[in-house]
Amino acid sequence: MIQYPVPWDQVYSLWPHIAKGTCRNVDDFSGKIVAKMIPGPVFEGLEHLPPSPRFLLVANHYQRKGLWIVHVASALTQAVADRYGRQIDPPVHWMVTANWPRIQLGPWSMPSPGDILLPKVAHALSCFPVSFAGANPAYTAATIKRILKAEPTLQRPIGIFPEGVAGAAGKLHPPLAGVDRFVALMAKRGWPAVPVGVSENGRFVIRFGAPVQPTELGTAPDAASLLMKRIAALISTSG
User: Fold this and answer.
1) Among 111, 113, 176, 192, who pairs with 211 as Cys (CB 3.0-4.6 Å)?
2) Which residues pair with 59 in a beta bridge?
């Protein structure tokens, strides 16, 4: 089984940006992580990436011991940078969990300590922060409004792991509530979605599928579930 080390050097490289409220170069950050992934990821179906970089990049949340979700996101980010060029950073705007459920201590509760740090990490990596499933709908709604306001000027994909942090290597989970609505909102604005199946078969395989067009997303009973089905098909046929 492939084992990739935690990229501590790149994690530490975020601290000056967290302290100053600035943004790290995501192409450089992800590129240095991928460079240390030996053996490197195998990309299949890159020809399916559409001419325009304005699309949703939708992948399964593939994580296990020795393969962190940051490895997956970095590999996908580099594939997009290779396809659309490096003149715009970040190559992908990832949606990430940066607001967690309150910690319960008997009759008392307190905010998660991560709620202080994680939004700053998200900002440093030019991500769109959302809350843990159901923990803080208002937090997520505020981010969705920000995305919709910025949408006309966005020139790179928005990356989503529909399963959220419940997703793990080797098993697909249903998409989180609210992902369907977000996909439908973006489809109304003309954004297709590119499904990506992440798996292993003696190697780390990332397989891109054909884009799902806005019309199909808009008429689907549940666009997020449709995309998870496309991801499942990509995983079953990857090699």
Assistant:
1) 192
2) 196
